[in-house]
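Example (one chain per record):
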Amino acid sequence: MEKGKEKSVCAVSSLEKGKTITAVCCVSAAGAYCPPFLIIPRKHLKAELLDGGPAGAIDIANESGWINEDVFLQWFQHFLMVFQPQHRSSPSLLIMDGHASHTNSLQLVMRARVSQ
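Predicted structure:
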């Protein structure tokens, strides 16, 4: 390669290297999707974190950045607003993995029963 014509390889890195942002996503077999629910490892959110993000996306702050029972219940409320609005007469089927945050919440079970 000629001198001065080297290719420059750049990398973008976060100041919070090693932090994980959890994205909870849900898509139906018909292609309908629930806007992403982002769990950001912070104590307090900044509104500009979602600037340019997907329409309808929701972000919450959680120090670990991981999902837990309380955070999953918040996501479930988000899911219900999208897929199970009050005027819809037929129930929705939600298939999940066996993560403890999805299966160990009595509040979640009660909320799911009420939405039927």
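Caption: Helices lie at 69-83, 100-103, 106-114.
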